[in-house]
């Protein structure tokens, strides 16, 4: 994220700017998103792409904080583009924005490392909030998507789920559990670092170790495990 020269010159409180790339094969959708996000001073749209192939090039040239990615597009769909993008730029925050929210798409996107999954009927103000959250390092999901994700991991009896979750957390060191609990509360890496008096780099190291020890593929799964264990 960047800050504006005007803010520095005026001596105002510096507010980070979230740089965003829009990826959608429908021109009207991109125009609408640009208008919605452009009204927020803390967001700057730095590029657009009409398919996954162009998206990889635009993201490489602009290095955005957040990529709003459609799924169904010509040449290279959003899931394939997300996988390729994160393989080369793991710090990018990809938020899937689509009309479809099937279980396969939701779980597939999150397994690939997407930072969020939103539906196109999400109110404009909520889209802005989700983009800002993603830019701050938080995972962001539409309510209906959250319900689907929870349903996918809650098919076992509650007691069995809690036992399994606690067994996963028992594998962690005390500090790793602190980080996992903070993720469960929705804190970003920077917020975790501040709360635990450690560096962001150390937070990332702890998260990598947590992912190695737990049957989790991203921080969303870590958060679910913490909640299942009743350890928030």
TrEMBL record:
Pfam families: GerE, Response_reg
InterPro entries for this protein: CheY-like_superfamily, NreC/VraR/RcsB-like_REC, Sig_transdc_resp-reg_C-effctor, Sig_transdc_resp-reg_receiver, Tscrpt_reg_LuxR_C, WalR-like
Protein's recorded name: Response regulator transcription factor
Keyword Ribosomal protein part of the UniProt annotation: no
Gene3D superfamilies xrefs: 3.40.50.2300
Residue stretches making up the HTH luxR-type domain: 165-230
Species, as recorded: Cellulomonas avistercoris
Keyword vocabulary terms for this entry: DNA-binding, Phosphoprotein, Transcription, Transcription regulation
Sites bearing 4-aspartylphosphate, chain numbering: 70
Top-level taxon of origin: Bacteria
The Response regulatory domain, residue ranges: 19-135
């Amino acid at each position: 994220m960047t800050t504006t020269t005007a803010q520095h010159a005026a001596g105002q409180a510096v507010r980070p700017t979230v740089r965003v790339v829009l990826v959608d094969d429908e021109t009207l959708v991109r125009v609408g998103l640009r208008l919605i996000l452009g009204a927020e001073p803390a967001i700057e749209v730095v590029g657009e792409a009409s398919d996954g192939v162009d998206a990889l090039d635009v993201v490489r040239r602009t290095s955005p904080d957040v990529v709003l990615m459609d799924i169904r597009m010509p040449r290279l769909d959003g899931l394939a583009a997300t996988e390729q993008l994160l393989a080369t730029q793991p710090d990018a925050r990809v938020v899937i924005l689509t009309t479809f929210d099937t279980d396969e798409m939701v779980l597939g996107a999150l397994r690939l490392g997407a930072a969020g999954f939103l539906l196109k009927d999400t109110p404009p103000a909520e889209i802005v909030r989700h983009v800002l959250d993603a830019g701050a390092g938080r995972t962001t999901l539409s309510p209906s998507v959250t319900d689907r994700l929870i349903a996918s991991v809650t098919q076992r009896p509650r007691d069995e789920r809690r036992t399994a979750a606690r067994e996963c957390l028992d594998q962690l060191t005390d500090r790793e559990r602190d980080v996992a609990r903070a993720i469960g509360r929705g804190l970003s890496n920077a917020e975790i670092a501040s709360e635990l008096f450690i560096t962001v780099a150390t937070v990332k190291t702890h998260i990598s170790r947590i992912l190695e020890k737990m049957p989790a593929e991203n921080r969303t799964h870590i958060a679910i495990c913490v909640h299942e264990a009743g350890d928030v």
